[in-house]
Design goal:
This protein has 13 helices and 18 strands. It has 375 residues and is an alpha/beta fold.
Length: 375
């Protein structure tokens, strides 16, 4: 199969990193649909099969499997996510296309390994197969083009399945978003940009949308699974209330600024929370660093003497600064939590969201907190 050719800023980004881009599940499903419908109309599977992506690229995909029946055809494609750490890399995406009754148009169905929407707040109705709008549009496009070329009606039922998709989906946000029994078929451009933040941030946005749609008033932005366990323990929150923000604190706060929910708890490891306290909204180790000089200033504010502050400033890790202050009885964790809360409120910029923050250590013990003090 060919390599995608992103344009503009994404191309420059990839050239800098030397990373290879890949394909979305939506692009693979579209290519498989094109091959299957072609076989229904002509008796032959095109291999490789070429499709046109929303931005005009025309990649070719090799088929990994094909079957032709009397009124149906199935084509399979192995997803290549490039150098992106995608859980669906090398997943087998299958499209089974069946001739439909006259006038039914194109209908979509979830086969094995593709989820079904069970909660509101997503761009699909409850009960629909988790095949997102852009992939649906792409598949309708290839069906229409082939039907026109061959004088067919274009009335077809498309069933998308993913081998082992239900198992793979356990490592995604899908269960939390109410997408059950499998994966979502995703993609807006057809191309996966390696290490792109966009998919994660989009998941954060959808998580907030779902929380709002099911009537939740309290959500938690968590940096990882340990943080989630603490949020659940501290506030008895449900899984739907958990926002896996990872390093993207800014994504949670900026979206809540536009789409507020009544209450937000931010829970994270001490080092990451110290970055938020310093004003960083991206907490990734490659894009922001723990500032021990800043932590030394906070330690002084929390009651440390100058000798301890100097030790904090010279510490090699955030954890070490915490350990030094804990040994001296200085509540560095509390002041980091308070500063992180202040940064969050500044980003929310007056949005009606009550915020509290919790810092934890690597074992999941709370080492600092800052709560809303108002009514």
């Amino acid at each position: 199969m060919t390599t995608p050719s992103p344009t503009g800023g994404r191309q420059a980004q990839l050239e800098r990193t030397g990373l290879r881009p890949g394909w979305t599940t939506g692009a693979c499903a579209t290519a498989a649909t094109s091959a299957a419908y072609s076989a229904l109309l002509t008796g032959e599977f095109p291999d490789p099969v070429t499709i046109t992506l929303p931005k005009g690229q025309q990649p070719a995909f090799a088929l990994a499997g094909e079957e032709l029946g009397g009124d149906w055809a199935m084509a399979a494609i192995v997803k290549d996510a490039g150098d992106d750490p995608d859980v669906t890399h090398l997943a087998v995406i299958r499209s089974t296309v069946r001739l439909g009754s006259p006038g039914t148009g194109v209908t979509f169905h979830a086969g094995p390994g593709v989820g079904t929407v069970t909660l509101p707040g997503l761009p699909l109705d409850v009960g629909e197969p988790a095949i997102n709008p852009v992939p649906r549009s792409m598949m309708r496009g290839v069906v229409e083009a082939l039907a026109t070329a061959h004088g067919a009606s274009g009335d077809v039922a498309i069933e998308i399945s993913v081998d082992k998709g239900e198992e793979i989906a356990r490592h995604t946000w899908n269960p939390r978003l109410g997408i059950l029994d499998g994966l979502s078929i995703l993609g807006t451009t057809g191309i996966v940009v390696p290490y792109s933040c966009s998919a994660w941030i989009d998941s954060i946005h959808r998580g907030i949308d779902v929380a709002a749609a099911v009537g939740l008033t309290h959500v938690a932005g968590c940096t990882g699974s340990t943080s989630e366990q603490v949020a659940i323990r501290e506030h008895a929150l449900t899984e739907q209330a958990m926002l896996d923000m990872g390093d993207f604190a800014g994504a949670v706060l900026k979206y809540l600024r536009r789409h507020p929910l009544p209450r937000l708890t931010i829970v994270g490891g001490f080092a990451k929370m110290s970055k938020l306290a310093a004003g960083h909204l991206d907490l990734h180790s490659g894009r922001s660093q723990v500032d021990t000089a800043f932590l030394a200033e906070l330690a002084l504010e929390a009651g440390a003497d100058k000798q301890l502050a100097a030790q904090v400033s010279e510490a090699n890790t955030g954890l070490r600064t915490l350990q030094l202050c804990q040994a001296a009885g200085v509540p560095l964790g509390d002041i980091v939590a308070a500063r992180a809360r202040a940064v969050a409120l500044r980003v929310l910029n007056g949005a009606p969201v009550v915020v509290d923050t919790i810092c934890i250590d690597r074992g999941g013990q709370v080492v600092g907190r800052a709560a809303h003090l108002g009514p």
